[in-house]
Structures are given as structure tokens and as C-alpha cells.
Amino acid sequence: MTAPTNDETGAAGTQPVGPAADAMPVTDTAPVAGAAPEVDTAPGVDAAPSAGDEAAHGTAPMPVPAVRADARFMLAHPAHLLALGFGSGLAPRAPGTFGTLFGWLLFDALLAPWAAWGQLWVVAVGLLAAFAVGVAACERTGRDLGVADHGAMVWDEIVAIVLVLSLIPHGFWWQAAAFALFRLFDVTKPPPIRGFERRHKNGYGVMADDVMAAFFALIVLALAKHLIG
Question: Coil, strand or helix: which one is 60?
Fold first, then answer.
């Protein structure tokens, strides 16, 4: 017999030739160690690019820039105007304090005479309407700004301080004490205010947590009035 040539032998030994070789089943080549596995895709469907490919080609999604609360934004919609306290919430620092000051001035200019005349029902109706409208306005404005309880939204402070001022004795020092106490409770948010705020990330939560701070201030002022006599 003639010895098989080099073309008829493989790396692992002698390979059959002739008819026996044609009858042998064809096996897949063993994968090379360290090679990435092949992923089958449906016909006509390209494989999704990886995060590295997107970054390399500049196609990775970019974060949406935050909307700035400024005069242009405030005047773009009536809800913005109300939620931003007619501009008092645009103060560069401590907008909540400026909104509370605006509410104090608003009370003295428009509502103090009604409270002095004993017509608290007028103030109550006005506050209920302001609260309901504020829920809708803060909901819309927070959604447009991308922050549910944006610092520039101060209509909640305005309504809350008016509530406090309507129920305390008249006089500058009582009003100053009400202002200081309300800001203290609104900033520190003692329980259950902070938990309530975290559970209600909407217009209702924005308005209601400040009303809760107003009631904390009213409790302290009522105790002070009782002690003073």
C-alpha cells in the first residue's frame, strides 16, 4: 500500500480519505479560547450597539438640561406666575422667605381689614380657593420645571402665612413672631411634615406641607397667648 501523503493527514493524526471520508459527518470547529461568542440575530435586524459603541460614536443619550426658573418662564403661563408668587420666588437667595414676606404684605394690604371686622369667613373662603388653585398651579409648574417642589414655587408659603396671620392677635410683634415660627417649621419640617412631603411629590404635597407648618406655628402662638394672658 501507498503511505498517505501530508495533504491526507491532519494535525491530530491520519484522516480517512476516499469514500470513507465522504461518509464522515462534518463537525463544527471548536471555539478558540478567549474569543467572543457569536450572537445570532434575526434576518434583517441589526444587533443593538453597546454602550461603548455609543460613547465612541457620540450617540449616547445626553441628560435633559434643567429648566431655569426666571422671569421668562414665569410669564410663559398663568400657573407659573401664581406658583412663583408673582416674582417673589425668583429671589436669588431664600425664595421661601421672600415669598412669606410677600404673603405678609398681601395680608396687610387686602385681608387684614376683613379679619379685623370679624369677617373671617371671607378670609376662609379666599384661603380655600387659593389652596385649590395653588394645587393645580404648583402641579403644572413643578412638572414644567422638572422638580416637583422647586424652591422658586412659593405660593404655598404665601397661603400658609396668610392662614397664620388671620388667626392670631393683631399687632406687628405677633405678626413678626408668626413669620419667624412659620419659617422655622417650614424649613426644619418636624414630623410628620417631612414624611408627608416625601410621600406626596405633587401639587397637593407642595401646598399641604406648608399648611401643616402653619398649624405648628399656630399651636406655639396659642400657647404663648395663653401664657401671656
Answer: coil
Residue 56 has pLDDT above 80, yes or no: no
* pLDDT beyond 80 at 110: yes
Task: List the Cα angle 47/51/53 in 5-degree steps.
Answer: 70
Cβ-based neighbours of 217, under 8 Å, separated by 6 or more: 164, 178, 181, 182, 184, 185
pLDDT 10s digits, 21-37 = 444 444 444 444 444 44
Distance of CA 68 to the CA centre of its chain: 14
Alpha helical stretches, state H, 107-154: 112-116, 120-145
Core vs surface per residue 65-92: b (16+ CB within 10 A) or e: eeeebeeebbeeeebbbbbbbbbbbbbe
Domain positions in the chain: 71-84+94-228
Q: What distance in Å separates the CA atoms of residue 13 and residue 18, rounded to the nearest whole number?
A: 16
Backbone angles phi, psi at 13, to 5 degrees: 140, -165
Least Cα distance to 148 among 212, 66, 203, 89 occurs for 203
| pLDDT one-digit tens code per residue, 196-205 | 989 999 999 9
Quote the DSSP letter at residue 13: E
Q: What are the cell numbers at 69?
A: 426658573
pTM above 0.90, yes or no: no
Would you say residue 38 has pLDDT above 60?
no
Residue type, 63: P
